[in-house]
């Protein structure tokens, strides 16, 4: 019988997706769940509800609490944490490269490396050079991957995936969706989503 | 030595404050923490950041997820759940009566009874009659409590408490603040807040 599966929807600009991305593989393995990593762009979804930037910037009290809370969450998980500047970062190229990577067998390592650079080390992950460095560190041919990431095919794949996220009613990252369509939002719901997927 | 303490800030209109209110007493007892129950009004705080109603109404996808998630959270805790209509409810009188109750020794029971009626049974908790019924069920003199709840003293006490919440940077309910000023937001952070208070 096939393993039960869970879709892990994430935007590289999203703060709480960092601990989720670092935790999901080992938790899913323990639970016997197959995880599909699905990058998407939150920007168009935020824009559709009238937000021009992250709600953490629009609502300063919420933002202050988020940074402090994320710091505590990472400390509890023994994850390095450094606040990136600017925030949010433009995650478009990183997401396109993720689609290239995830079609191969090093996709999850790439996604974790992007999140670790961004929120663990506070590095910028917007520019081709920054992503190229990470690709090199994974033993990949950075130029080739970046070229493929900018192909029409990959661009429209990411657009379709973002449309699908919107159709599913996703409004934040990380989100987890079971095969039966049950939606869970937030790093705090990762365990509950895996439990649900196993039922 | 005095017990370490934690302030529990809540608005009766807030959905996730229901499970928090039902859980906090026993968790705090186990942790050896003294909890101060502090009702406040979220409305003025939301208004100050441009929201005329609950963000769960302003952002439908967020709202749909919240109701479903709250249902799952309550099921996991074996708490009854019924969605109240209208939402959010006007919690002003309930909060004023809470200040009367909390000055006496039946305050926590009253707060739990309001939350249980509202989110456990889906009952309206806006009107004096509705609150009076709950007061009666607690063996209190409903008329006397409601009269005191409408006194100038109690009205300004609630206003001051809401001002204090705003000064503390609170932006949602439930919130937990330690004696050292560490802020935790959300039912999901209750355990972390208690741990922090004990350090």
Would you give an account of this structure?
The structure is a homodimer of 199-residue chains. Chain A has one domain (5-198): Glutaredoxin. Chain A has helices at 17-31, 42-48, 55-58, 60-77, 92-102, 107-120, 128-137, 142-149, 152-167, 190-198, and strands at 5-10, 34-39, 175-178, 183-185. A four-stranded mixed β-sheet of chain A has the order 2-1-3-4, sandwiched between helices. The mean pLDDT of chain A is 96. The two termini of chain A are 14 Å apart. Chain A is of the alpha+beta class. In chain A, a hairpin with a 4-residue loop joins strand 3 and strand 4. The interface between A and B is medium-sized, with 20 and 20 residues.
Brief account:
Two copies of one chain form a homodimer. The first copy, chain A, has one domain: Glutaredoxin.
Residues in β-strands, percent of chain A? 5-15%
**Mean pLDDT score of chain A, rounded?**
96
Gross geometry of chain A: globular
Largest chain-chain contact?
A-B, 20 and 20 residues
Radius of gyration of chain A: 16 Å
Quaternary status: homodimer
Instruction: Count the beta strands of chain A.
Output: 4
Structural class category of chain A: alpha+beta
Chain-wise SSE layout:
Two copies of one chain form a homodimer.
Chain A: E1 5-10, H1 17-31, E2 34-39, H2 42-48, H3 55-58, H4 60-77, H5 92-102, H6 107-120, H7 128-137, H8 142-149, H9 152-167, E3 175-178, E4 183-185, H10 190-198
Parallel strand pairs in A: 1-2
Antiparallel strand pairs in A: 1-3, 3-4
Helix pairs in contact in A: 1-6, 1-10, 5-6, 5-8, 5-9, 7-8
């Amino acid at each position: 019988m096939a393993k039960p599966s869970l879709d892990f929807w994430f935007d590289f600009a999203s703060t709480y997706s960092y601990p989720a991305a670092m935790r999901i593989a080992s938790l899913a393995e323990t639970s016997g769940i197959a995880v599909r990593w699905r990058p998407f762009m939150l920007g168009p979804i935020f824009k559709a509800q009238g937000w021009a930037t992250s709600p953490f910037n629009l609502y300063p009290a919420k933002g202050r609490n988020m940074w402090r809370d994320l710091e505590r969450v990472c400390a509890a998980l023994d994850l390095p944490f450094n606040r990136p500047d600017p925030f949010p970062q433009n995650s478009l190229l990183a997401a396109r490269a993720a689609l290239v990577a995830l079609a191969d067998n090093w996709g999850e390592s790439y996604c974790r490396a992007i999140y670790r650079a961004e929120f663990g080390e506070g590095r910028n992950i917007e520019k081709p050079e920054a992503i190229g460095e990470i690709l090199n560190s994974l033993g990949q041919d950075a130029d080739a991957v970046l070229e493929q990431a900018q192909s029409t095919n990959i661009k429209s794949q990411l657009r379709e995936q973002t449309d699908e996220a919107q159709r599913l009613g996703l409004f934040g990252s990380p989100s987890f969706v079971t095969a039966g369509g049950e939606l869970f939002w937030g790093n705090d719901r990762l365990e509950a989503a895996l439990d649900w997927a196993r039922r």
